[in-house]
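Narrative of accomplishments. A recurring question from our advisory board has been how the design workflow behaves on a single, concrete structure rather than in aggregate. To address it, we present the structure tokens for one chain from the evaluation set, followed by the sequence designed for it. No filtering or post-editing was applied between the two.
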């Protein structure tokens, strides 16, 4: 099949620039039926030398140092925003105006106002759009979604999520600048709420439906840090830790906790959903497994109440499991980078079939609304209603 070239302008060469570039390079090898073929057309970043270095390693055909030039190019079809959060809105809106497809790293924006403007822009332009909430594409998490859709959880009662890291405990970690912009509120928008809980919220909404109300508490443990770019010691404006309670539209209750101060936890992203008929549990530090407790067999309604009742540990590597027929033989695992390949494959397949893959900008706007309600509640101390559509 002759493929349609999809010429990509990648904005940013950090952690996500690498993760996305890897997906563009691999996707056609493992999803050969796709009609599109990503072409690494242009890498855009402010530092020309570093941008060229990255472009050389990954095979980008050219380099731009001004994102406005990159998004205006006639030889670019898709703009991928992998630069810090503060840049997302302006680039996305401009890219949409130029009729480009837009892929944006999470969280969609600094706040709801920006996310609304971005969503309006891509929808007005009618351009394909996607947000890289990659964890939906962990095979075990996709399997959890399948179990929910198959009715194996039944009436949901509880959803609990944790997202824990430990890399900002030292007081001499600066804020701002390369690799550390996540600590600078003017660049990141918020701390763990937008960076980590946004993932947990996206997964939760996907598995358990809309969140209606939240009550939250946040803490900033280290109050001042040196800013890497100015050398000045400045107040820290981000939330270092956040916990919140949630009420879902389906009547279930949720608890969410996130911090960058959980010593020993590197990327500990877990959730558990408990329903009348079953439960699922997932832990990203053990990502090949999904734990499932079956109480009611959906086909027969039979209750599993005998001496064999118990949690089942599913090694999610069989051909029957989501995405796993694309990779190796059963028992061989896939990892973090594959989630981006899956996300890209679903995005392209969605455009090609006419049924857009999720999460698109509108879906990510929903997550942004929950984040904003969480931060508002942390300030007010009371329950906040999520401004769902
Ligand atoms: C933060 O440390 C971070 O890199 C997030 O920004 C990513 O979204 C997350 O997946 C891994 O952790």
């Amino acid at each position: 099949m002759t493929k349609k070239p999809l010429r990509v302008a990648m904005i940013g060469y950090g952690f996500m620039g690498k993760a996305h570039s890897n997906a563009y390079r691999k996707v056609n090898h493992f999803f050969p039926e796709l009609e599109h073929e990503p072409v690494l057309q242009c890498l855009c970043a402010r530092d020309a030398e570093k941008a060229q270095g990255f472009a050389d390693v990954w095979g980008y055909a050219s380099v731009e140092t001004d994102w406005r030039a990159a998004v205006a190019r006639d030889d670019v079809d898709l703009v991928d925003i992998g630069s810090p959060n503060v840049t997302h809105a302006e680039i996305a809106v401009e890219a949409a105006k130029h009729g480009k497809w837009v892929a944006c790293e999470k969280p969609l924006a600094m706040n709801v106002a920006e996310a609304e403007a971005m969503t309006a822009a891509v929808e007005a332009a009618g351009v394909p759009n996607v947000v890289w909430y990659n964890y939906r594409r962990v095979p075990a998490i996709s399997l959890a979604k399948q179990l929910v859709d198959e009715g194996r959880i039944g009436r949901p009662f509880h959803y609990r999520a944790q997202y824990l890291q430990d890399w900002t405990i030292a007081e001499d970690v600066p804020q701002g600048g390369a690799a550390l912009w996540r600590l600078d509120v003017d660049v990141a928008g918020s701390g763990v709420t937008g960076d980590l809980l946004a993932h947990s919220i996206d997964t939760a909404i996907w598995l358990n439906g809309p969140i209606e109300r939240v009550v939250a508490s946040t803490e900033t443990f280290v109050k001042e840090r040196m800013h890497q770019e100015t050398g000045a010691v400045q107040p820290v404006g981000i939330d270092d830790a956040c916990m919140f309670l949630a009420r879902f539209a389906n009547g279930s209750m949720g608890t969410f906790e996130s911090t960058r101060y959980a010593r020993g936890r590197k990327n500990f992203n877990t959730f558990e959903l408990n329903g009348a008929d079953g439960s699922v549990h997932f832990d990203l530090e053990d990502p090949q497994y999904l734990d499932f407790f079956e109480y009611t067999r959906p086909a027969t309604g039979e209750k599993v109440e005998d001496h064999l009742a118990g949690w089942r540990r599913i090694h999610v590597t069989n051909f029957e499991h989501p995405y796993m027929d694309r990779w190796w033989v059963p028992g061989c695992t896939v990892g973090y980078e594959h989630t981006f390949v899956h996300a890209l494959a679903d995005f392209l397949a969605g455009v090609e079939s006419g049924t857009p893959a999720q999460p698109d900008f509108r879906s990510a706007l929903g997550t942004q609304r929950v984040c904003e309600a969480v931060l508002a509640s942390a300030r007010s101390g009371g329950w906040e209603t999520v401004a769902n559509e």
